[in-house]
Design a protein that fits this description.
Helix content: 55-70%
Strand content: 5-15%
Order of helices and strands: HEHHEHEHEHEHHHHHHHHH
Structural class: alpha/beta
Strand order of the largest sheet: 2-3-4-1-5
Bound molecules: zinc ion
Number of helices: 15
Largest sheet: 5 strands, parallel
């Protein structure tokens, strides 16, 4: 487990303090896709509910086992799968359930993953829950980025940011996960994903992703070198395959966000060196807009052409 979160000492420290009793009533674990937010949230929940005297979570007590099997009566899990999928009814149910005392121990944990997928109404109801915390309740929340959430919610939670792990540690972890794969290839996957284990794992297990990564590379270098022709070429690759185009733009979005935050990763560093902050913000907005357009019934070729002309204006 520790190598999974190598380089995340600050998050581990929050967890250790929280378990020792210095707990806040709501934690928000955030970071890009693939960093293990859900795994970390479960580890957090397990630590809170573990009945061992020290070294929590012990992983062997009855409570830890129940959490692992997701049958602990004091752990409720709600997962937002897509935009707007966490409805106000679910939050109202949680609010009602909050006041009921825990079954087994002293705490009740509500793990809500991807809270960015709450509807506006759900957010409002949730805000009220955060404003009137009950003593035995702890919320463990996850989201990708703080800017996806209302400030009123962010200001009432204790944020815990997750970071990619150092590339060498990532490579060693991948080697254990894929014992058949040579270490060199694991290291390449770790480097290409900037230490994001989830992404590196996907890269090694889904060969079609390396196809997308070639196009992503072309798109990123076109943007950093401001080469219009390559930009057009990269965006045209999947104009007839919307699912892949959405995937490509999703990967591109993550590179842009990494660049904006000044994070590692070869592509992010190259883009960061060539674009100003306002250009990065504009590109992120545009890429989000295009991805949204593609997920509705928009025509792929038209969207690609629009995307290309707008990107050219931003990076010019
Ligand atoms: Zn335990």
């Amino acid at each position: 487990m520790s190598s999974l979160f190598a380089g995340n000492e600050s998050a581990m420290t929050v967890l250790k303090h929280a378990v020792k009793g210095a707990n806040h009533h709501a934690y928000l674990i955030y970071g890009e896709e693939g960093l293990g937010k859900r795994t970390f949230a479960m580890l957090f929940a397990k630590a809170f509910l573990c009945t061992a005297r020290s070294g929590r979570p012990c992983g062997v007590c009855r409570s830890c086992k129940k959490v692992e099997n997701q049958v602990h009566p004091d752990l409720k899990i709600l997962i937002g799968e897509k935009r707007g999928s966490i409805h106000v009814e679910s939050i109202r149910e949680i609010r009602k359930d909050c006041v009921v005392k825990p079954n087994d121990g002293e705490l009740k944990i509500y793990l809500i993953a991807n809270i960015q997928h709450m509807t506006e109404e759900a957010f409002n109801a949730f805000l009220k829950t955060l404003e009137e915390p009950s003593l035995h309740t702890i919320f463990i929340l996850t989201a990708e980025h703080l800017d996806q959430l209302p400030e009123t919610v962010v200001s009432r939670v204790s944020p815990v940011e997750l970071y990619p792990v150092p590339e060498e540690s990532a490579a060693l972890w991948l080697r254990k996960r894929f014992p058949e794969t040579p270490l060199e290839e694991c290291l390449r996957a770790a480097q290409a994903s900037g230490g994001n284990l989830g992404k590196a794992e996907k890269r090694l297990s889904l060969p079609e992703l390396s196809e997308i990564s070639g196009t992503l590379e072309l798109l990123c270098s076109a943007v950093s070198a401001k080469r219009e022709y390559d930009l057009l070429k990269a965006l045209a690759v999947y104009e007839k395959d919307k699912a892949k185009q959405v995937q490509l733009l999703g990967e591109f979005l993550q590179v842009l966000r990494q660049a904006l935050l000044g994070r590692s990763g070869k592509q992010a560093r190259a883009i960061q060196a060539c674009l100003q902050k306002r250009q990065l913000i504009a590109l992120i907005g545009l890429t989000e807009e295009i991805r949204e357009k593609l997920s509705t019934n928009a025509n792929g070729s038209l969207v690609s052409a629009y995307c290309c002309s707008e990107m050219r204006k931003i990076i010019a």
